[in-house]
Protein backbone atom coordinates (compact mmCIF):
# COMPACT_ATOMS: atom_id res chain seq x y z
CA UNK A 1 0.00 0.00 0.00
CA UNK A 2 1.13 3.55 -0.72
CA UNK A 3 0.95 6.16 2.03
CA UNK A 4 -0.38 8.97 0.00
CA UNK A 5 -1.48 9.92 -3.46
CA UNK A 6 0.56 12.55 -5.38
CA UNK A 7 -2.11 15.14 -4.60
CA UNK A 8 -2.55 13.84 -1.01
CA UNK A 9 -6.21 12.96 -1.56
CA UNK A 10 -5.93 9.21 -0.92
CA UNK A 11 -4.10 7.47 1.92
CA UNK A 12 -3.28 3.78 2.33
CA UNK A 13 -4.15 2.53 -1.10
CA UNK A 14 -3.11 0.55 -4.15
CA UNK A 15 -4.51 1.26 -7.58
CA UNK A 16 -4.34 0.33 -11.22
CA UNK A 17 -6.28 0.73 -14.43
CA UNK A 18 -7.51 -2.18 -16.49
CA UNK A 19 -8.92 -2.37 -19.99
CA UNK A 20 -8.38 -6.12 -20.49
CA UNK A 21 -9.33 -8.89 -18.05
CA UNK A 22 -7.25 -11.93 -19.05
CA UNK A 23 -8.95 -15.18 -20.12
CA UNK A 24 -12.17 -14.01 -18.39
CA UNK A 25 -12.23 -10.86 -20.53
CA UNK A 26 -15.46 -11.53 -22.48
CA UNK A 27 -17.31 -12.57 -19.33
CA UNK A 28 -16.13 -9.52 -17.36
CA UNK A 29 -17.00 -7.13 -20.20
CA UNK A 30 -20.47 -8.71 -20.40
CA UNK A 31 -20.96 -8.18 -16.66
CA UNK A 32 -19.81 -4.55 -16.88
CA UNK A 33 -22.15 -3.96 -19.83
CA UNK A 34 -25.11 -5.46 -18.01
CA UNK A 35 -24.42 -3.96 -14.58
CA UNK A 36 -22.99 -0.55 -15.51
CA UNK A 37 -22.66 0.65 -19.10
CA UNK A 38 -26.16 -0.34 -20.28
CA UNK A 39 -27.71 2.17 -17.84
CA UNK A 40 -26.11 5.10 -19.65
CA UNK A 41 -26.20 6.62 -23.14
CA UNK A 42 -24.10 4.73 -25.70
CA UNK A 43 -22.43 8.00 -26.70
CA UNK A 44 -20.42 8.15 -23.47
CA UNK A 45 -16.72 7.41 -23.97
CA UNK A 46 -15.53 5.60 -20.84
CA UNK A 47 -11.99 5.60 -19.51
CA UNK A 48 -10.34 2.26 -18.65
CA UNK A 49 -11.71 0.93 -15.35
CA UNK A 50 -9.89 2.29 -12.31
CA UNK A 51 -9.41 -0.26 -9.53
CA UNK A 52 -8.83 1.21 -6.08
CA UNK A 53 -7.85 -0.97 -3.11
CA UNK A 54 -8.08 0.95 0.19
CA UNK A 55 -6.45 -0.69 3.20
CA UNK A 56 -8.32 -0.93 6.50
CA UNK A 57 -6.48 2.19 7.66
CA UNK A 58 -6.81 4.07 4.36
CA UNK A 59 -9.05 6.97 3.45
CA UNK A 60 -10.00 9.48 0.77
CA UNK A 61 -10.09 13.19 1.61
CA UNK A 62 -12.89 15.47 0.37
CA UNK A 63 -12.54 16.12 -3.35
CA UNK A 64 -14.45 16.53 -6.59
CA UNK A 65 -13.25 14.24 -9.40
CA UNK A 66 -11.34 16.11 -12.07
CA UNK A 67 -13.84 17.86 -14.32
CA UNK A 68 -11.57 17.75 -17.41
CA UNK A 69 -10.53 14.09 -17.25
CA UNK A 70 -13.84 12.52 -16.33
CA UNK A 71 -17.31 13.25 -17.64
CA UNK A 72 -20.69 13.97 -16.11
CA UNK A 73 -20.97 10.48 -14.66
CA UNK A 74 -18.77 8.69 -12.15
CA UNK A 75 -19.98 5.23 -11.16
CA UNK A 76 -18.46 2.80 -8.67
CA UNK A 77 -18.89 -0.88 -7.85
CA UNK A 78 -18.08 -1.60 -4.20
CA UNK A 79 -16.46 -4.84 -3.06
CA UNK A 80 -15.27 -6.56 0.13
CA UNK A 81 -16.51 -4.34 2.97
CA UNK A 82 -19.08 -1.65 3.72
CA UNK A 83 -17.95 1.94 3.93
CA UNK A 84 -19.43 5.33 4.66
CA UNK A 85 -19.01 8.05 2.05
CA UNK A 86 -19.73 11.63 3.07
CA UNK A 87 -20.90 14.26 0.58
CA UNK A 88 -20.59 17.98 1.46
CA UNK A 89 -21.78 20.92 -0.58
CA UNK A 90 -18.68 22.73 -1.86
CA UNK A 91 -19.96 26.13 -0.72
CA UNK A 92 -21.77 25.09 2.45
CA UNK A 93 -20.13 22.35 4.54
CA UNK A 94 -23.20 22.27 6.79
CA UNK A 95 -25.12 20.84 3.85
CA UNK A 96 -23.94 17.23 3.89
CA UNK A 97 -25.15 13.66 3.84
CA UNK A 98 -23.64 10.23 4.35
CA UNK A 99 -24.16 7.20 2.17
CA UNK A 100 -23.67 3.56 3.17
CA UNK A 101 -21.87 1.73 0.37
CA UNK A 102 -22.26 -2.00 0.86
CA UNK A 103 -20.29 -4.72 -0.92
CA UNK A 104 -21.87 -5.51 -4.28
CA UNK A 105 -23.52 -2.11 -4.67
CA UNK A 106 -23.28 0.22 -7.65
CA UNK A 107 -23.37 3.91 -6.89
CA UNK A 108 -23.57 6.82 -9.29
CA UNK A 109 -22.44 10.41 -8.95
CA UNK A 110 -23.89 12.71 -11.57
CA UNK A 111 -25.05 16.29 -12.10
CA UNK A 112 -25.26 18.28 -8.82
CA UNK A 113 -23.87 15.48 -6.65
CA UNK A 114 -20.97 15.06 -9.05
CA UNK A 115 -20.06 18.73 -9.47
CA UNK A 116 -21.38 20.63 -6.40
CA UNK A 117 -20.58 18.18 -3.62
CA UNK A 118 -17.21 16.87 -2.46
CA UNK A 119 -17.05 13.19 -1.53
CA UNK A 120 -14.79 11.50 0.99
CA UNK A 121 -14.16 8.24 2.84
CA UNK A 122 -12.89 9.30 6.28
CA UNK A 123 -9.62 7.75 7.41
CA UNK A 124 -10.89 8.03 11.00
CA UNK A 125 -13.08 4.97 11.81
CA UNK A 126 -15.06 7.08 14.31
CA UNK A 127 -16.46 9.10 11.41
CA UNK A 128 -17.88 5.98 9.74
CA UNK A 129 -21.35 6.61 11.13
CA UNK A 130 -24.55 5.78 9.26
CA UNK A 131 -28.00 6.25 10.88
CA UNK A 132 -26.31 6.51 14.29
CA UNK A 133 -24.33 3.26 13.92
CA UNK A 134 -20.58 2.91 13.54
CA UNK A 135 -19.90 0.90 10.38
CA UNK A 136 -16.72 -1.18 10.96
CA UNK A 137 -13.99 -0.15 8.56
CA UNK A 138 -12.17 -2.87 6.61
CA UNK A 139 -10.17 -3.33 3.45
CA UNK A 140 -12.26 -2.27 0.48
CA UNK A 141 -11.91 -2.48 -3.28
CA UNK A 142 -13.82 -0.31 -5.71
CA UNK A 143 -14.10 -0.39 -9.49
CA UNK A 144 -14.53 3.13 -10.76
CA UNK A 145 -16.17 3.88 -14.12
CA UNK A 146 -15.60 7.37 -15.53
C1 LIG B 1 -11.90 8.31 -6.38
C2 LIG B 1 -12.97 8.02 -5.40
C3 LIG B 1 -14.39 6.39 -4.39
C4 LIG B 1 -14.51 4.93 -4.20
O1 LIG B 1 -11.14 7.38 -6.72
O2 LIG B 1 -11.83 9.46 -6.84
O3 LIG B 1 -13.59 8.94 -4.94
O4 LIG B 1 -15.64 4.46 -4.05
N1 LIG B 1 -13.24 6.73 -5.11
O5 LIG B 1 -13.48 4.25 -4.20
MN1 LIG C 1 -13.56 10.64 -6.29
UniProtKB/TrEMBL annotation:
Molecular function as annotated in GO: kinase activity
Keyword terms: Kinase, Transferase
InterPro entries the record matches: AlkB-like, AlkB-like_sf, ALKBH7-like
Signal peptide as annotated in the record: none
Entry annotated with the keyword Transferase: yes
Cross-referenced Gene3D superfamilies: Alpha-ketoglutarate-dependent dioxygenase AlkB-like
GO biological process, one term: fatty acid metabolic process
GO cellular component assignments: mitochondrial matrix
Domain Alpha-ketoglutarate-dependent dioxygenase AlkB-like intervals: 58-146
Pfam families: 2OG-FeII_Oxy_2
Protein name per the record: Arginine kinase
